[in-house]
Amino acid sequence: MLLEFVGKNIELTDALKNQAEKKLSKLDRYFNEEIEGKITFSTQKGNRTAEVTIYLPGTILRSEETTADMYASIDKAVDVLERQVRKYKTRLKKRYQNTETIRFENFEQSIPEKGDETADPQIIKRKKFDLKPMNVEEAILQMELLNHNFFVFLDGDTGRVSVLYKREDGNYGQIEVESA
Known about the structure:
This protein has 180 residues and is of the alpha/beta class. The chain has helices at 14-24, 70-87, 89-95, 136-146, and strands at residues 2-8, 36-44, 47-56, 59-67, 133-134, 150-155, 161-166, 172-176. The strands form 2 sheets. The protein has a 4-stranded mixed β-sheet.
């Protein structure tokens, strides 16, 4: 796995990088080719966060864990990623039928900080991304793999932008754009 390391409010030591590489190497058995990943270490108010993102062709796996110890955060984040891959094995297998990226034979059967608040909220982060056409099932898979509670996508059936969101009852909702 080709890893990019990023540190926010923390000095990246060789020991930390080596531990992260060692822990993430256990995921290599699930992938056929050399894949890219990014791990961001951050510390804030005594909390240590490890955020791991793995880039598969057409899919992104993401995990973020926070504990008092960075090494424990790494362990938890890698465990979450492994559970995601195992949980979504069948869906991923459908998507990657040629199995060039994922080694399915290695699967077993079972599987905001509060701070000073300003009077007027401000946009503090903007993201831009390409929308890929996909059906609702693929969007749900992608949202779950990213561990997000919403997902913006281009609905392949309608050709329109949609927002998928996770409801409090565990089901999903979809917001569709109508032309005026």
